[in-house]
Design a protein that fits this description.
Chain A: It comes from Phycicoccus avicenniae. Chain A has about 270 residues and is mostly helical. Chain A has one domain (about 30-265). Chain A is built from 11 helices and no strands. The mean pLDDT of chain B is about 90. Classes of the chains: A mainly alpha (about 270), B alpha/beta (about 300).
Chain lengths: ~270, ~300
C-alpha cells in the first residue's frame, strides 16, 4: 500500500459551499431501494442462496420428471413442487436483508447516511419483494424449460394449463413467507436467531394446536401453514381469505410493527 | 460547524456522557482525547443521530444531523473502520455509499486515490484487509461526497507512523479549505501530531479543552540543579510556587525568572527548560491510570 499519496483535498473548497440547502430530510426512496437490492446480491451469502434455491428447484423438477408418475407431470404440478424450496429460501433472504446491518455492523454506515431508519426498513421490505418476484419469474422460466424438455423426452401429452388462481396463489404464498422472513429478521436483528425462530415458532404453534383439543378452531384462523394450503392449491374461497388475513396479521403484521419499532429505537453501535 | 451543548447520555444509573459542551469551528482539526470508555464514541454517535441523547443537543452545520437533507453529502462520518461487511470488496462498500448519497461514481476513484488504496486492493474483499487498510477505506467513505465536516472515531488506530503523518496532511489540507474535523483518539501523541484544538474527556466529562498551544505551553518551567531546595527558597521569596518532583523542580514561573533565581542562589543549573506538554500528558496519564484502577478494583 502506498503511503506517499497525493495531498489533494476536497475538490471544491469545503467552506465555499454556502448554507445547507433546504429540502426534505431523507434520501429518495428510489435510491435506497436500489442500494438495498444491491446489498442483497453483492455478497457471496446472498448470491449463493439464490443459486442454491434455483438449483434445488431444478433438481426437484428433474427428479420428478424422471421418476414421477406420468399423469401428475403437469406444468402446474411442477410449479407447486418448485414453490417448496423457494418457500424455505426466500424467507432466509428476507431475514438476511433485515439483519445484516446489525450482524455485520454496517448499520453504522447505513444509518449515518440515512438517519431516517423507517425509510431504510421500507426500502428493505420493498427490495426483498422485488428480488423475490425476480426469483419467482426466473424459477417459472426454469420450470417451463425443464417441462418442455421433459415432456418432449417422455413423448407424453404436455399439459401447460395453469389456473390463474393457482399461479397467483403460489406467488402470494411465497410473498407471505418472504415478508414474514423480513419481519422476523427485524424483530430479532440477528440472523441465526431469526432463522431458527421463523422455523420453530410456527411449527411449535402447529404442534400445540394439534395436541390441545379445541385449539384447531383457533388454528384455522392463525396457523400460517394451514391458511396457505388452499392458496397453494388454488382453491381460495370466501372464509379462506379471512383466515389468511388474520394469520398474516399475527405472523407478519405484528412482527413487522415490533421489528420496525426496534430498528427505530435501538442504538446503533 | 459542529456545536455540542450540554450533551448528556445516561444508561440506567450510569452516566456515560455528562454535560459535554464544545464547538468545532470552520478550519479546525479538533482532537477528541480520552481513555477507552471515556465516552468519546457515545458523543460521536449522538452527534450523528445514531444514539438518542438523554439531554442536551448536538448540531452539525446549524441543525440536528437527522434534519440534514442527505447528510452523507455534507458530513463525512467514520465511526468504526471494522463495521464493514467482510464479504464485500472495498470498492463495493464505496459504491453502496455513492449510490445512497447520489454522488457521481467517479468520486469512488478519487476517494480511493486520496487515501492511497490501489485498484487491486479495492477489488479485494474487506475480510482480507489489515486494520490500516480498513481505516483508509473508512476514510475514503467519509471523503466520498466531498463533505464540509468530518467526524472520525479513532481514525489513526492501526496506521503506522508514516500513515499518521499522511493523515495529518490530509486532514490539515481539508481544514485549510474551510472544512471542520472532529477526530477522536485514546493516544495523546496521535492527536498531538494531527489536531490544533483539543478536547479531553474522562469518564464522560470534559476535563480540559483549548488550542494545542494553550494546553502544551504555559505549563511553567522545569529546572534541575545541584541544589533544587535553594532555588525553591529563592522562588518562594519572589512569590512563585515551586514543587520538587523526580525530574527536578517544577514551577509556574517562566524560565528567565528561574534562571535568575538560580544565579542569585549561586547554584549550578544542570537543566532548565519550559515544560512542553507535560501538563497535558500528566493530566491524560492520570485519567488513564484512574480508569485502569477502576477496572482493576
Amino acid at each position: 500500500m502506498s503511503t506517499t499519496t497525493t495531498t489533494a483535498g476536497p475538490t471544491r473548497p469545503a467552506g465555499a459551499a454556502g448554507p445547507v440547502p433546504d429540502g426534505r430530510p431523507g434520501v429518495p426512496l428510489g435510491r435506497l431501494l436500489r442500494v438495498e437490492l444491491r446489498k442483497l446480491v453483492d455478497t457471496r451469502a446472498g448470491r449463493w442462496l439464490l443459486y442454491a434455491s434455483s438449483a434445488v428447484a431444478v433438481v426437484a423438477v428433474v427428479a420428478f420428471l424422471v421418476w414421477g408418475s406420468g399423469e401428475d407431470a403437469t406444468f402446474a404440478g411442477l410449479l407447486g413442487l418448485t414453490t417448496l424450496p423457494l418457500a424455505i429460501a426466500l424467507p432466509i433472504l428476507g431475514i438476511m436483508a433485515a439483519t445484516a446491518e446489525w450482524s455485520q455492523r454496517t448499520g453504522l454506515v447505513t444509518f449515518a447516511l440515512e438517519p431516517h431508519r423507517g425509510r431504510v426498513v421500507a426500502a428493505k421490505v420493498l427490495a426483498s419483494v422485488v428480488l423475490g418476484a425476480v426469483v419467482v419469474v426466473l424459477a417459472t422460466a426454469g420450470v417451463a424449460l425443464a417441462y418442455l424438455v421433459g415432456s418432449a423426452l417422455r413423448d407424453g401429452p404436455a399439459d401447460w394449463s395453469v389456473p390463474g388462481s393457482l399461479g397467483a396463489g403460489l406467488a402470494l404464498t411465497l410473498l407471505v413467507y418472504l415478508v414474514q422472513g423480513v419481519a422476523f429478521g427485524l424483530v430479532f436483528l440477528n440472523t441465526p436467531v431469526a432463522i431458527v425462530a421463523s422455523l420453530v415458532l410456527p411449527t411449535a404453534f402447529s404442534i400445540v394446536s394439534g395436541l390441545v383439543t379445541g385449539f384447531e378452531r383457533v388454528a384455522v384462523w392463525l396457523d400460517l401453514s394451514l391458511v396457505t394450503e388452499p392458496l397453494t392449491e388454488g382453491t381460495m374461497a370466501g372464509s379462506d381469505w379471512a383466515h389468511l388475513g388474520t394469520a398474516s396479521l399475527v405472523w407478519i403484521g405484528l412482527p413487522l410493527v415490533v421489528g420496525t419499532w426496534r430498528v427505530l429505537t435501538r442504538e446503533v453501535a | 460547524m459542529i456545536s455540542i451543548q450540554n450533551l448528556t447520555k445516561r444508561y440506567g444509573g450510569v452516566t456515560a456522557v455528562d454535560d459535554v459542551t464544545f464547538d468545532v469551528p470552520r478550519g479546525s482539526v479538533t482532537g477528541f482525547l480520552g481513555p477507552n470508555g471515556a465516552g468519546k464514541s457515545t458523543v460521536m454517535r449522538m452527534l450523528t443521530g445514531l444514539t438518542p441523547p438523554t439531554s442536551g443537543r448536538a448540531h452539525v452545520l446549524g441543525r440536528d444531523y437527522r434534519d440534514l437533507p442527505n447528510p452523507g453529502e455534507r458530513v463525512g462520518v467514520m465511526l468504526d473502520a471494522s463495521a464493514q461487511h467482510p464479504g464485500r470488496t472495498g470498492r463495493e462498500a464505496l459504491t453502496l455509499a455513492a449510490l445512497t448519497t447520489g454522488v457521481d461514481r467517479s468520486r469512488i476513484d478519487t476517494a480511493l486515490g486520496l487515501v492511497g488504496l490501489t485498484d487491486d486492493e479495492a477489488a479485494r474483499r474487506v475480510r482480507t484487509y489489515s486494520l490500516g487498510m480498513r481505516q483508509r477505506l473508512g476514510l475514503a467513505g467519509a471523503l466520498l461526497a466531498d463533505p464540509q465536516v468530518l467526524v472520525l472515531d479513532e481514525p489513526a488506530n492501526g496506521l503506522d507512523p508514516q500513515g499518521i503523518h499522511w493523515m495529518r496532511s490530509l486532514l490539515r489540507d481539508f481544514a485549510d479549505r474551510g472544512g471542520a474535523v472532529l477526530l477522536s483518539s485514546h493516544l495523546l501523541h496521535e492527536v498531538q501530531t494531527v489536531a490544533d484544538d483539543i478536547v479531553v474527556i474522562g469518564r464522560g466529562r470534559i476535563v480540559a479543552s483549548g488550542s494545542m498551544e494553550e494546553l502544551v505551553a504555559g505549563s511553567g518551567t522545569l529546572v534541575r540543579s545541584e541544589d533544587d531546595g535553594a532555588i525553591a527558597a529563592r522562588l518562594h521569596t519572589a512569590g512563585h510556587e515551586a514543587t520538587r518532583s523526580e525530574q527536578g523542580l517544577v514551577t509556574a514561573a517562566d524560565p528567565a525568572t528561574v534562571g535568575r533565581a538560580a544565579r542569585d542562589a549561586g547554584v549550578a543549573v544542570l537543566e532548565l527548560r519550559p515544560r512542553d506538554g507535560q501538563g497535558l500528558e500528566e493530566l491524560f496519564l492520570r485519567l488513564t491510570v484512574e480508569d485502569a484502577r477502576e477496572v482493576a478494583a
